[in-house]
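Structure Section — protein described below
Tokens — whole-number codes for backbone shape
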Amino acid sequence: PGFPRTLGQAKALDGICQLDLVISLNIPFETLKDRLSARWVHPASGRVYNMDFNPPHTQGVDDLTGEPLVQREEDRPEAVAARLRKYKDAAKPVIELYKSRGILHSFSGTETNKIWPYVYTLLSSRIPPVLSDEEH
């Protein structure tokens, strides 16, 4: 989830700046639930592991200390599902607001490396390149 997450936050943001581009990433519910539920932590250090793409060397234990990893309550599958439903309900009016202003650009997918080229192309067409001192 990004920002703004609620209509109240969107209206507060309007008081600070005028947005001309909003990006919405549409990722399937199950994909998000699985990714967030794969997160485990080492409580003493705060080190975070993801069982899918950054697992510990030995399952269930911290790489540096060998102490057990835990899954936080908010990362358990049922809690993640409830959080995602709540977010979707809160975000819907925000999405509709930006869609009605004609500034919403939506991208769908399940993998960053497949979505990013499309987002990059959009941003590249809207934001001038930053030139180094040598290029000026």
Remarks:
- The chain has a mean pLDDT of 91.
